[in-house]
Amino acid sequence: MQNVLATSYLALLRATGLYGGLAALAALVRIPSQLALGHHVAALGFLAAMSVFVAATMMRPGLTPRILARPDHPTHLLPVLLFHALVPLLFSIPAMGAVISLQLAEPLSRSLAIFSAVPIVMLCGINWCIGLALCVWPKPRDPRIPSEPVTPRRPKMAKLRPEELAELRRQRAPAF
Q1: DSSP 3-state assignment of 158?
Q2: Helix %, strand %, coil % for the chain, to 5?
Q3: pLDDT tens-digit profile of 139-156?
Q4: What is the pTM assigned to this prediction?
């Protein structure tokens, strides 16, 4: 089950990167027309460029940090959950900006902008849950390692007579 979750997590991570990258590219394509109309789109351009970089990092297996690509330890919990909580903000703003830049009628533009951000939020929400499960899932036990720790046995000592015991104590005592 853990392998299925890990595989689906990685596939959803790549799908999120693909959709976010396409949405950011659509926003970048619409920037020149917005500048020609006199709109201020510097913040949208910066977020879209950063989104393209993050999306490319998410889609390439060699570029994705191991802690995000294969979470398998409780110490990975905070970075994984924080990443999947912030990525929707990073990807949905350029997606909504691309739809808004089409300058459609207000109700239609608003609805399309919201619907363009829904897949990103859903993919990241599912990945957030799967990442949580993968981080807290106990690791399978290695069959080569014994399940119980081996405690060494104390060597059997012969019972000493009181004279022999007193002789041993004298030998260990420091000489003054």
Answers
A1: coil
A2: 70, 0, 30
A3: 776 677 767 776 777 777
A4: 0.73
